[in-house]
Amino acid sequence: QVQLVESGGGLVQAGGSLRLSCAASISIFNINSMGWYRQAPGKQRELVATITSGSSTNYADSVKGRFTISRDNAKNTLYLQMNSLKPEDTAVYYCNAAITRVIPLRKDIYWGQGTQVTVSS
Predict the structure, then answer these.
(1) How do the pLDDT tens digits run along the chain, 121 residues long?
(2) From CA 71, how far away is CA 22, in angstroms rounded?
């Protein structure tokens, strides 16, 4: 079992910034892909950004140019730097990890508990 613990959420005004952290219980060097997802009340959970073990990144169109996903392998931590925040960014943000096992061949998915981000207008 892999544990993921998010932190860094809070209340900010529109245009402000927050930096979310996700601490993993294992070396993230061994995690094939990690990402951030978010879920607003009454909405489906949506992908925000992902990063692979090879450091390739992908962003939702709504956050491109404003959010930056990164990882610090030495600290076993995933980050999401959020700038120019908008009220529509308000949601619970979840850390995600995907590990492809070789023997037996399977893909394991893990989620953190989530951290609340609220952006006031």
Answers:
(1) 899 999 999 999 999 999 999 999 988 777 889 999 999 999 999 999 999 988 899 999 999 999 999 999 899 999 999 999 999 999 999 999 999 888 888 899 999 999 999 999 9
(2) 9
